[in-house]
Amino acid sequence: MLILTKSLMAIMIGFILSLITAFILIPILKKLKIRQSLSVYLERSHTKKQGTPTMGGLIFIIPTILTIVLLLILKKITINYSLLIVLFSFIGYALIGFIDDYLIVIKHNNKGLSEKSKFLMQVVIAIIFFYLFMMGGNEPLLWIHAFNLKLSIGWFYGLFILFVLVASSNAVNLTDGLDGLAGGLSLIAFTTFGIISYNTGWLEGYESVAIFCFILVGSILGFLVFNISPAKVFMGDTGSLALGATLGSIAIITRHELLLVLIGIVFVIETLSCIIQRIYYKFTKKRLFLMTPIHHTFEKKGFDERDIVKVFWIIGLLASLLAICFGVLLWTKN
Question: What are 81-100's pLDDT values in tens digits?
């Protein structure tokens, strides 16, 4: 009951602080003309979004950090190595996204950092994360929890972690194209990882990591109040890169990297659609999908944006429920 109470308190505080942050930050973003520039290839229905404030990821990033500080003062959470490296990933990728968003605003177009520059910065943060993770006494093991199987993959594990962090951050970034889509899916994913984290009793600081997940759930929920259709603010790369990398880092420290594929199945599908489109076009000079990420294909086929978001949320929720069965119920001996 104490764990449940702490979780609910974390969600509540994160939510309230997120609302307060939004009411303060959105007018400031509008005043500074920090607005989103949209791609010319998008549907006409997106033209009304032109000029919507971006960098809204700060609405859940700032409250998350403030809530952690508050809970530390109240002695309801403890700082430990596991939480620190997750926070490093969270803040590190948020800074990359912030730089990207800032350049977009300065250039007044939808191009911030170049793909190479952004990728290089992501890789640097991922390498530092891997170093910190291994310094914590972790072994290069790939765990398959459903079968209680541990596979030693040696130096390849470093490349694996690099892939997980970079891929997860970019996957959420690609999915952030419809009002509330990436935010809602991230809320579901962090709720799932919060539940899973509470079951990793072998992990030092597992309770703090779980509470962090629920703080983020509350903060994202507050953000969604202003991000669901019609969106009053977009999270931008500031938010999407931070959310994706944090999902990856929590999956890594809880040793549920493979389960991340199921929990983030919509993110995976969105990313695969872009990869397949590029490969197909390279060899055939034709497009397999009308537009990628794939949510835009459904838009071009005439589906309403809000209906697409709802269906994708449901898919994400069902996948997360299945992941809890694999990651918690089937692995728990009690």
Answer: 999 999 999 999 999 999 99
Which parts of 176-256 fold into alpha helices (H)?
181-197, 206-227, 236-253
Does residue 154 come out as left (phi exceeding 0), alpha (psi in the -120 to 50 range) or beta? Answer: left
- Give whole-number Cα distances, 299 to 178, 232, 315, in Å: 10, 20, 17
Tokens of 78: 């403890």
Q: Confirm if 54 and 35 have CB atoms less than 8 A apart.
A: yes
Structure tokens belonging to residue 257: 């990297």
Handedness of CA 80, 72, 23, 306 (dihedral sign): positive
pTM for this model (two decimals): 0.93
For 144, the enclosing helix (H) or strand (E) is strand 141-144
Burial environment of residue 262 by CB neighbours within 10 A (0 to 12, 13 to 18, 19 or more)? middle
Q: Answer yes or no: are the C-beta atoms of 182 and 176 closer than 8 Å.
A: yes
